[in-house]
From TrEMBL:
It comes from the Eukaryota. InterPro entries: FAD/NAD-bd_sf. It comes from Deinandra increscens subsp. villosa. This is FAD/NAD(P)-binding oxidoreductase family protein. Residues 40-61 are annotated as: Disordered.
């Protein structure tokens, strides 16, 4: 048996209520085996009972890969002053850390960002040019998230965007959205919101840039490493990112049920083109495009075009330069997918020209008439947006004391990411307060089925698309 020291909480218990996700409340009883999770065929006959293995004081375990790996089982009571590792500094990871802090739990956030935190809240600044190159804006439909956004507005982190958005069809036919929910942006680019969220925290440490490459259970704790460099030991871990890197991390960590759920996630690939022009983009019959942003229809190489300069400016007169973010469709991204860490120059040039041609088509311009941008950069968003979801707020394995949060668990929006982080933070805090003595009561999301996810090519905007809001999660934020 292990002799791990793990978690005790000093704040009141809180259990969120998710009326559209009954599985979150049921906490189904689960059986964790060290044998492969996949069932054997009947011709093999009955299998001998397997035993749980506890990780403790004697050795570091050698784990089998992926779904055949042994299940980590921590059995010792939680410690008096637990420390949680959160791998990923996007919206869900940051709000998980903040919610843990409100419940009296310390955490360390590990993020790969060189320029700052944020994940999909990415902003690139080059001299006087500013581009939101991932999330463009967000909407609010959930009461708990609304409370947070009101707080951010009061602190000056975010404000409503007043510009016109709508749909743009090939040939320059623009249809403005006559009514839509308030759209929010960070005042100086989306990344500034991520950097501002932890500005007043006292129990959250941030380590970046850092790419956690391994998690090892040893002496009742999770030991995290970055390419062989020890990054600390933790009572509980949170995976707040996804894609191939998360799958690789989980493949040998002793968490087969969590690894299986993460592996079931499908992600799109989307190209982003950041382009700055000396003059405003022309539009048929007008001196410039009559919109701040547009969802483009019927053009394969462009699905969204957003005027960063107009969006972020506080005055009527904007530019030059005029900074635009263009996104491709997922089908275009899939056909032109390459390793995003090493994009061939020929591919980058091809994608840039095809996307600029798509912009011409969308605006109804003659071929080759669009002036060459004074700055242009393409970026592949390799693990862009989820195309399927289990529709639950979070995933948590109480035996392995590890959870997952992220927008994909509820949808594909910043609101979904926020709600997932808040939910997992509360869930882990409740688990720690219980002392870890009733693990089966805290197992969440380890067996949920996935279903297809609909939305725009660049994500969901609750209240804006299909009139389908994220399910109302009555998450109360505790002081």
């Amino acid at each position: 048996m292990q002799t791990a020291s793990n978690h005790l909480l000093t704040s009141s218990s809180f259990v969120p209520n998710f009326p559209c996700s009954k599985s979150f409340l049921k906490h189904p009883n689960l059986t964790f085996l060290i044998s492969p999770i996949c069932s054997s065929s009947s011709k093999d006959g009955p299998k001998k009972p397997t035993r749980r293995r506890s990780y403790g004081s004697s050795r570091k375990s050698v784990l089998r890969k992926t779904f055949k790996q042994e299940q980590v089982t921590f059995t010792a009571p939680v410690s008096d002053d637990p420390l949680v590792a959160i791998i990923g500094g996007g919206m869900s990871g940051l709000l998980c850390a903040l919610q843990l802090e409100k419940r009296g739990v310390r955490s360390t956030v590990f993020d790969t960002g060189i320029h700052g935190l944020g994940g999909r809240m990415g902003t690139r600044s080059i001299d006087e040019m500013v581009f939101d190159h991932a999330a463009q804006f967000f909407t609010v439909s959930n009461s708990a998230f609304c409370e947070l956004v009101d707080e951010w507005s009061q602190k000056g982190f975010v404000r409503q965007s007043q510009g016109v958005i709508g749909e743009l069809e090939a040939g320059g036919q623009f249809f403005p959205f006559l009514s839509s929910p308030p759209r929010y942006i960070a005042v100086n680019g989306m990344r500034t919101l991520a950097d501002s969220l932890l500005s007043q925290s006292s129990m959250i440490e941030v380590v970046r840039p850092c790419w956690i490459s391994s998690m090892e259970p040893y002496n009742g704790m999770w030991h995290l490493s970055e390419n062989g460099k020890h990054r600390g030991q933790f009572d509980t871990t949170v995976i707040a990112h996804n894609g191939k890197c998360a799958n690789r991390l989980l493949s040998t960590s002793g968490l087969p049920l969590i690894a299986r759920q993460m592996k079931r996630l499908d992600l799109s690939s989307i190209w982003a083109l950041l382009a700055a022009f000396e003059d405003p983009l022309p539009f048929p019959g007008e001196t410039d495009a009559p919109f701040e942003g547009a969802f483009v229809k019927g053009i394969d190489s462009v699905s969204w075009m957003g005027n960063n300069t107009q969006k972020l400016s506080s005055s009527q007169k904007v530019g030059p330069p005029h900074c635009w973010t263009f996104f491709s469709t997922a089908s275009f991204g899939k056909r032109n997918k390459v390793p995003q860490e090493n994009i061939p120059s020929a591919t980058a040039e091809k994608v840039k020209l095809l996307m600029l041609a798509g912009v011409e088509n969308a605006l109804g311009l003659e071929i080759g008439s669009l002036k060459t941008p004074i700055y242009a950069r393409v970026q592949l968003w390799g693990a862009a947006l989820p195309t399927n979801t289990p529709g639950i707020p979070c995933i948590f394995d109480p035996l392995g004391r590890t959870g997952i949060c992220g927008d994909w668990l509820l949808g594909s929006s910043l609101e979904a990411a926020a709600l997932s982080g808040l939910s997992l933070g509360n869930h882990i805090a409740d688990f720690l307060k219980s002392g870890g003595s009733r693990p089966d009561e805290f197992a969440v999301g380890l067996h949920e089925d996935f279903h297809p996810l609909q939305g725009h090519e660049i994500g969901q905007f609750p209240g804006l698309e299909f009139n389908k809001d994220i399910c109302e999660a009555e998450v109360q934020l505790q002081a």
